[in-house]
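ok so dumb question maybe but i'm new to this and my supervisor (M.) told me to 'just get the structure for Ubiquinol oxidase' and walked off. so i did the thing. is this what she meant?? sequence i used:
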Amino acid sequence: MKRFVAGSLARRLISRGGGGYMSTAEMMARPASMQGVMMNKQQSQPYYYYYYWSRMINSVAEKSKEVVNGGGVEAIKEEEKQKKKKKNSDEEQGTVNSYWGLSGPSIKRPDGTDWPWNCFMPWDSYEADLSIDLTKHHVPKKFLDKVAYRTVKFLRILSDLYFKKRYGCHAMMLETVAAVPGMVGGMLLHLRSLRKFQQSGGWIKALLEEAENERMHLMTMVELVQPKWHERLLVLTVQGVFFNGFFVVYLLSPKLAHRVVGYLEEEAVHSYTEYLNEIDSGAIENVPAPAIAIDYWKLPKDATLRDVIFVIRADEAHHRDVNHFAADIQFQGKELREAPAPLDYH
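this is what came out, is it supposed to look like this??
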């Protein structure tokens, strides 16, 4: 470091020395009061720059000695080492360093291990209500009821023809569709609330909770069934068509939209019941439950696929009740906000 600093100073002094010399013509162009001063400086220039050089070298040497003796170099190296070590540690843990100072909370399981999920937190998990009545059915009486019922039955025939006995793939496709209505309904109610300066009675949150719950069903099923490329293509197509179609239906007739979802959930309960029958008969292997399902539904550590299907079916039955209830409110000529929403209804 001493050599580097000394070399830099030498180059600087040489450049100054070369640039500091003035010709006689240049000095004569100066005011008379300064000509004598400049002449004296030029006459003593060799001694002047030698004196300046000696002082600078001694000053740099003393400062370098102070830095070395004071441990400054070692401290800098140690600081850089610690920064590099922390960066490598963050990369191993998947931590994203942000200028904004934001970071996820450090959450532990009851057994002291780290909480492994970012898609939901421990306070989002729950124990499903398995006592719900699975046999409930809304008998279609009015014209819109019949339209909704027959539309869902037609869609059920198409899905059965395509998936047949592949219940895992069928459930996966079902969840990609079932997670759409809650998001569309919650979004439109949110915009309506903003336009009309009205509260929603909790229905925005209730419908978004439903959408999130259905999405967690999908995240679980993907752990059990790996979709093929043509099934992924089908998901993209169905989602695009269903989202836009349901969006238009909800704008034109929210009560029809909720009735359609109610009947879709009835069919979901039926589909998962068939899935359970295949597991009980041994046609489908009762594999261990995915870790995400165990944490989300607070299942036992030794839970199996059968346990997962039980809790998903119970969730679908609850969504059935919520959407038929929403449709009934609107068929009675009322708005959803006039009836309290069934929040945290699982």
